[in-house]
User: Fold this.
Amino acid sequence: MPEKTPRQRRLWWRLILLILIVAMVAVGFAAWDEMQSSRLQSREFSRLASTLTYRLEPGPSDAILYPGDGPFDKRLGYSALGEFLPRLLKRDYLINQQVRFSPALMNYVEHGLFVPYVEKIQAGLAITDCRGEMLYQYKYPQHLYPDFASIPPVMVNSLLFIENRELLDPKDPKNNPAVDWPRFAKAAYSQIAKYLALPGQSAGGSTLATQLEKYRHSPDGLTVSGAEKIRQMLSASVRAYQGGPDTTEARERIVRDYLNSVPLSAVPGHGEVHGMAEGLRVWYGADFDQVNQTLNSTASDAKSLAERGLALRQVLSLMIAQRRPSHYLSKGRLELAELTDSHIRVLAANGIVDRPLADAALASKAVYRDWVAQPTIVPIVTNKGISLARNRLAAMLNRPLYDLDRLDLSATSTLQADLQVQVSQYLKNLADPAFAAQMGLIGERLLTSKTTDQVSYSFTLFERTADGSRVRVQTDSTNQPFDINEGSKLELGSTAKLRVLTTYLEIIAELHDKYAGKPPAELKKVPVADLDRITQWSLEWLAQNSKDQNLDAMLDAALNRKYSANTGEAFFTGGGMHVFNNFRKEDNNRNPTLKDALRESINLPFIRLMRDIVRYVTYQQPFNREPLLKDDADPRRQEYLARFADREGTNYMMRFWKKYQRKTSQQRLDTFLDSMRVTPQRLAAAHRYLFPEASQETFNAFVRAHSKDDKAAMAKLTDSRLVEMYEAYGPGKYDLPDQGYIAKVHPLDLWMLGYLLKNPGASLKDTLNASRFERQEVYSWLFKSRHQGARDSRIRTMVEIEAFTDIHQRWKRVGYPFDHLVPSLATAIGSSGDRPAALSELVGIIQNDGVRLPTLRIDTLHFAQGTPYETQLISDPDRGQRILPVEVARALKGAMSQVVDAGTARRISGSFKLHDGTPLVMGGKTGTGDNRIESFGAGGRLIGSRSLNRTATFVFYLGDNHFGTLTAFVPGRTAEAFTFTSALPVQVLKGMAPILMPYLEPGNPNACKAPQVASQP
Assistant:
């Protein structure tokens, strides 16, 4: 092939160049045409958007991705679903329905793009009651533009001129709102110029659509990189074309959503500010509706024009402030005012705002709201039921109430709203003496007309359903968020007897299960401790009834055992000797059955029953402690004594810690010396222990300075005597117990002060850890042979503590709410405290034949309804747990019914009747708690008594399916003036019968809806 000539080669290159130029022109023309028409974008983006679908299906989803940490997604709770759902599943909820992403949407989101859907302009917490009636609703933002047409045109035009001028161009229906090509080109050039250090100002290329994506979905609402900007643009493009190639409606929605949700910093005491409506109210104290009305006005008089000018200034300043809201709305207010002026002039020059309005706006001055004189928080309408439901949800989701209200969440409460309101009002009305008298609350052991307003009442009503005990009413008469039912620890008196009786009958059932069926001869050979009366009786009963050892019969016989009510006996309990009293003196010489003692609430039989329970636990194999109590040579005694020393020493250490905490070293020393009866010898012993390295001169000065008020002692404090004492009490001369004995202070008090002087920043934990040896050393005398009596009492104390640890586990199984019991027989009459709601749980177990059903307060939770993250949860219906044998529950239920029929609650008997006159079966237990501090003098003489509070409680079951508790409560020193007993809550409940009965009737129209059941996949 002949070689091409230079001329041919030039022609070839010219042809290639011409083709390239034509191609570039064609590409440029196509690009220009695409910028003008958006034909390609509208087709491809809308085609892609049509595949990005999702649907709600039964069960948990296997195709869903929760969004990242965008502010919008965090506020509405979408980002936290991965945290919320495991918490709720642990609390026995299950996912009933959840959204599944299409494969295309999963792939789209896995590439980091934001899920396209029409986002909510308003959301928040909604709580309905058990019938679907609205109980509480919070909408955020509270004010907004519902649609594009409701926005004043001058606001739309001003916004578009400032931010996105071609957004609503009617000549371009397929316009991609995510890209403003001229601004994008300018922004791209500015970034290149910045990189090449060329002159020129930096320019932003964000459209309103990409700004929405940024402050809603980008992490922290920021664009931190070019990749993040591309993500915003692509996500905004796909979102815009979701409805098809024509984006007219989507672009109008962008304007509306921007004005409704633009972030405008935050205000202390209010929180974040979003949208024009909230911005106008919070920053300027302006009424949103009034501002819109003013901007829409065409009036031209001076006053109207001035109002429009101010409204325009306020709106424009917030539009401008969104660029740096924390700066412009705080320290940069003057700068913001200047920028607003310049924007007004530009808007007027371009015909966006007419000249008279611009002049009025320039003449106006925006005045910021005074948050002290005008607090920004809008009061939330609430009541006790709403507070309880919100607090329950807040605890379940681990969110403060502020955040909870802003979640996109609908929840169904188990409360019956109208009944809750009626009962709450009834309890509040009891403060009125006239109403209280009408309800029968004035009288002996009740109230006087002058004291009705000082008593608080708490009431809870549960309904037993197939899958749980649902709270229908939970309220009290206080105006505080504090909940007496669940948030208190109250001494509820004789209601503890029900717990004691439950434990007793449980033990009887255990012994029946262990020994029933064995022949009498074998039963007689079972080794039993002399003091284990419960086992002794059980074996005897089984032996005597060998032909018919029915558990029901045995439990009935156990309830008919007699216990003395005599008050003449002193009981060793809680580390010392104690005596107890009955409420009525006429009971002191009785010998009632346990059934009678429960019915009439007699104390001493239950003190003795508790002692028998403690002994039963103490002597049970394989942990039989009988040899330990009898044999001083038992090697286990050393272990028990060491544990006693540690426990007793720890108690003293905690007492001394309270004396010294939050004080300087000098203040601690002064406190120690103030508690001493000083003598030179005691001062010497204390000083040499506390300051072992102090010189003789320092020692002398200390002893003399603190003995100067004792002239006789000062006369004997010669230099030689001080030298003698300095040497006599020096380090190593005495051990800690002896040094404390000489100083006449508790040795651990002396040790703690010395430790804190050397370690002034130590915590209580540090101090306890450092004092392990000293706590044993101080009680070393216990181990010496001549102190057997002291050892016996200490070991009895430790054995009793261990027994109450076991009893506590039994109580915990039936709902006791606290982590320990007071290790004293007084626990039988209420000294360990209780909660009304916890007592209700026990009654629910008894009513349900020994099966504990879950206590339900929130039935369903529905997150993100109508969004790609929609998730519905319902309470798990299959979780009943047997706690007590059915026979034990039946026996307790029968005993409780006698309390109402003929006992301390008999005044309410027959008060609850159906329409046909049939009385509802009812049982309960009453209790009165008088919690006070008593002071005793020499010989045990009572020298002072101060009341801390007074309570009276009635815990009950009502019919086949309802149970609850009612408590009357007087806190503080005012309780001194009250003598009411449990007759008060019983009478209050009796007065409530007309309110409750319409809801207790079978098939009543006020009944709650049946709980939702799980959907089948």
In short: The two ends are 76 Å apart (CA to CA). The chain has a mean pLDDT of 86. The first strand starts at residue 54 and ends at 58. The first helix runs from residue 6 to 37.
